Amino acid sequence: MMPCLVSPIRKHKIGSDDLVVPAAAEMAAYIWFFCFVKNPFVKDGCFNSTLLQNYDLCGSILIGIGLILSILIFHTSLKGTVINTIPRQHMGKLVFAKLIVDIITVGLVSLSTCSFFFVDFSSCSEVVYFTLFRQLVVSWLVVFVILVNIWHWAVPSLKFLDWICCGFLGSNLSAEIKERLWKLFGFDNYSVLNGVVDLLMKFFKEQVDIVPTDILVALILIKEQQTLKQQPFMLSSCSTASSKRPTWMNVTLARHYLQFAMGSFGWMLYVLTGPFAFLKLMASLLKSSSSLKKKKKDDIIDDSFLMLNTVGIQLHAGLSIEEIVYVSFYNREFEVPFFIAIDRLQKSIVVAIRGSLSVHDLVTDLTALEGEILLFDNSVTMTAHSGILHVAQNLYHKLLGIDKTGSVVGKGLLEKAEKQLSTLEGPRASTEYNLVITGHSLGAGVAAILGILLYQHEEYQEKLRCFAFSPPGGLLSLMGAIHCEPFTVSVVLGDDLVTKLSICSIFDLKLKVLNILKNCDVPKHAIIGSWLQEKLIGLFGWQFVCLRNHSNWMQSGPSWARDEKALQAVTSYQNHLQEAINSTVDEKSKYNRLYLPGTILYLHQFSGTRVKCYRTYWLCRDAETLGEIILSPNTIHHHRPLFLKRALDVLCCDTKGPSRAEVAMTIS
Predict the structure, then answer these.
(1) Confidence category of residue 172, pLDDT binned at 50, 70, 90
(2) CA distance 3 to 60
């Protein structure tokens, strides 16, 4: 922990208590080398030169010294606690001494190698020769590890993020050269990248000396606290009443339109749906190849040569080629793939928008500052995630065939869809069909904002429906989230990270990390070791509860209570951390909290007897469970479309009984 380990050469980006495992591994390597590789092979009279014998003796001495230093480093690294580093104050000197021994070892092995080729082995047996050769090869393997170690300790560290953010973008290169360099990587908007870098630097700039394992320890303790807490959504009050929700906001329709949202990902997601999905994809491609050729080139944009993504859309959503109106897989900053289709089963025109799947989408996600949504009558002032807002505005212009000023420039895609619907179902069908906008992740955020933009047109107000699956947590201001309640439902599964992710929630997590480190008087190896023990034992399927009662470490009070020097050092570290906490609070206050859009359908996963069980809750947007990043094994899994589909499948399956699907509940 703080401060970072300092040797006579430089300051290192590791803590003095991070060397327990490396030192133990090095001790094992020394013992193995001495016992199983280094054999007493030299006999008097085997060869005339005694040079290799001297090298052998020197090597034995160096192995012994290295082993002793490794034991001392291992023992010292176990001392103290996360916040109390005084018992490890001599670690830098030990590491420097070990570095000198390693450098001498490299020189000795190099000289031994040169001497090996000049010694006459004519009087020696083959056993001696090959034993020497084996030891030489193993020695160079050890030298390789030592060279890596020397580079790590002696060469100034290259901070990758700082190099990217400050060295590359913040260098003295002209703006024109920088823009050309970024275009080589496929990025067209250099100013947007500058904004992303500025935002990243606010999160990751170094205010105190914290090493990666300190953050790991803090996250482990945060997860432990979250596990011990009661489920926050069970205690939250919510103003959403079941009677106020439209009837179309239900699990069955959510499951239906999730198929369209998944279809926007194309064939790559479809092949993950089952063991024979790829064969089904190929069979469907052969079957529909002739009908795909009849489609106009303007109707399918930037798909692969074989139209695999379009076939994936058909298979996901169960559509015929005639029901697909328009497909675009063009992907740049603020441009995401989407498709428009006619859903005859639920009588709707569907606009499905793809989620994040490329580096360009990542840039859009990270353009997370607020942008203002401008409506025609200016009656409502609302803000939104600026990157997603740009995507929604671009798509809005395409759907209505207008430019940025609102002037009509051509036939819109929605008009084209209505015309194709009239051809399939008759001229009056457009008045009977609803307009559904759906998407997953980034696509869900775009769908919600696109719904707000379309809702200002009277012809769409009665028939507009938006299904946002796992939308970003930092999407809309409070006014915007309330404004889209009548036509938007957000579907959130369990501990999904993205639905809780926003600028404010990241700052909250950073504050938790700093506060925990400020008062953590427990050895780092005890926390990480206990966590690893729980994970490793869990791999064998045993029922195991790891009770990390850290009070045992503090029964006699703080570890620095009787050491004046340690007290001064710990107080200094805590003051630095408090300054970082105050700075983070000030930085967080500059940003407004953004919320999930519309009405929120929360799917809570709990353990049943043999299968995963789910319960549905209609939550208010300020429920505690929606504003806090939950650290759990499901943080990433619950964001995946296939996991969300599995949950909705279980909830829609009435034949399996109430043990697999619970009745929907409204917290009021």
Answers:
(1) very low
(2) 36
- Length of the chain equals 668
CA of residue 242 relative to chain centroid, distance: 35
- And the tokens for 470? 């796992």
CA distance linking residue 376 with residue 399, whole number of Å: 17
* Nearest-angstrom CA–CA distance, 218 and 511: 11
Closest CA to 253 of 348, 391, 177: 348
Rounded CA-CA distance 67/24 in Å is 10
Q: Are strands 338-343 and 324-328 parallel, antiparallel or unpaired?
A: antiparallel
In DSSP notation, 9-74 reads: S-B-SS-TTS-HHHHHHHHHHHHHIIIII------TTS-S--HHHHHHHHHHHHHHHHHHHHHHHH
CA distance 249 to 475: 20
Q: What would the pLDDT profile of 255-272 be if each residue is shown by its tens digit? A: 999 999 999 999 999 999
505: left (phi over 0), alpha (psi -120 to 50) or beta: alpha
State the amino acid at position 527 in one-letter form: I
Cβ–Cβ contacts within 10 Å for residue 655, how many? 6
Arithmetic mean of pLDDT, 349-357: 94
Q: What is the DSSP letter of 131?
A: H
**Helical (H) or strand (E) element with 202:** helix 190-204
Is pLDDT at 537 greater than 70 in this prediction?
Answer: no
Residues 6 or more apart whose Cβ sits within 8 Å of residue 154: 9, 10, 99
Q: What's the 3-state SS for 526-550? A: HHHHHHHHHHHHHHCCCCCCCCCCH
Nearest alpha carbon to residue 86 among 578, 579, 558: 558
Q: What is the pLDDT of residue 665?
A: 38
The amino acid occupying position 255 is: R
pLDDT tens, position by position, 280-293: 999 988 888 878 87
Would you say the C-alpha torsion 116, 122, 123, 124 has a positive or negative sign? positive
**Residues 70 and 30 sit within 8 Å (Cβ to Cβ):** yes
3-state secondary structure of 169: coil
What is the DSSP pairing of strand 434-440 with strand 382-385?
unpaired
Q: Name, of 42-51, 170-179, 334-343, the range with top average pLDDT.
A: 334-343
Element (H, E) at 647: helix 641-652
Residue 298 is classified by DSSP as: G
| Bridge partners (DSSP) listed for residue 489 | 467, 599
Structure tokens at 8: 């006579």
CA distances to 78, 220, 528, 542 from 537, in Å: 23, 17, 14, 7
Q: Which residues of 456-479 are buried (b: 16+ CB within 10 A; e: fewer)?
A: eeeebeebbbbbbbbbbbbbbbee
Residue 369 backbone dihedrals phi, psi, to 5 degrees: -70, 165
pLDDT in tens, 133-151: 777 787 787 777 777 766 6
563: amino acid identity, one letter: D
Write the single-letter amino acid at 311. V
CA 132 to centroid of chain Cα atoms: 49
Residue 437: band (very low, low, confident or very high) from pLDDT cuts 50, 70, 90: very high
Which of 6-10, 18-22, 23-27, 525-529 is predicted least confidently?
6-10
Cα separation, 563 vs 542, whole angstroms: 43
Residue 3: asked if its preceding bond is cis (omega within 30°), the reply is yes
pTM here? 0.81
Q: What is the DSSP letter of 163?
A: I
Residue with tokens 């399996």: 656
Cα-based distances in Å from 551 to 362, 429, 522, 558, 580: 43, 70, 9, 11, 27
| Tens of pLDDT, residues 296-338 | 778 899 888 888 999 999 999 999 888 999 999 998 888 999 9
